[in-house]
Design a protein that fits this description.
The protein has 165 residues and is mainly α. The protein folds into 2 domains: 57 residues, no CATH class; 104 residues. 54% of the residues lie in helices and 8% in strands. The chain is built from 7 helices and 4 strands. The protein has a two-stranded parallel ribbon with strand order 1-2. A two-stranded antiparallel sheet has the order 3-4. Helix 3 runs antiparallel to helix 4, helix 4 packs parallel to helix 7 and helix 6 packs antiparallel against helix 7. The longest helix is centred in the middle third of the chain and has 15 residues. The protein is elongated, with a radius of gyration of 18 Å.
Length: 165
Amino acid sequence: MVRVITQETFNEVVKENLELDMSPEEAIEDAVEQFEAQGVDLSNIVKEVMDNIPGESKNKLKSSLDNLGKLIKTSSAKENEIITELKILKEEFNKSLAHKVFAGSNGAYSILVDILEMYSGNYDIALAALNTIIALMNGNPDLWKREYKCDYQLSGYTEECRHTN
C-alpha cells in the first residue's frame, strides 16, 4: 500500500526543521528522508521552500501564480508582464508532475482559462496561455473541466473561448 501526504504536511515538517536551525536545503532534505523512510510516495510533492515558511520567499511557482492572478484583475496589466508570467509558469510545470499538481490545487487551471477568455482577441497572450495550459495538462489531465469550452484556431481564423453551463 502506497502512502501519500499533502503538500501542506510536507511544508509543516520543513517548517519544523527550520525551527531547529537547519538551512532550507537541510530542512527539505531531512523531510524527504523522513517520509521516504516511512514509505511515503513523494512524487506529488514540490520539494522547494514554500510560502508558508516564515522568513522564506515564496517558491517561483506560487509567486508566479499569485502575480498572474493579480495582473488579470487590473485593467492596466501589460501584455509583456502577462506573457512573462505565463512563460515562468510553463517552465515550472515542465519540471515535474508535483509542480503541476501543486499549481492545480492553487487555481492554475481557472486562472489560465480566465486569461483565454479575457484575451481571446490577443494572439500573443492567447498563444502563451494555450502553451501554458498544455504544459499544465500534459500528464495531468485531471484538471480538465467540461464546463469550459474553448475553440481556438490561432492561425488567424476565429478565436473564441466561452464558459458554458
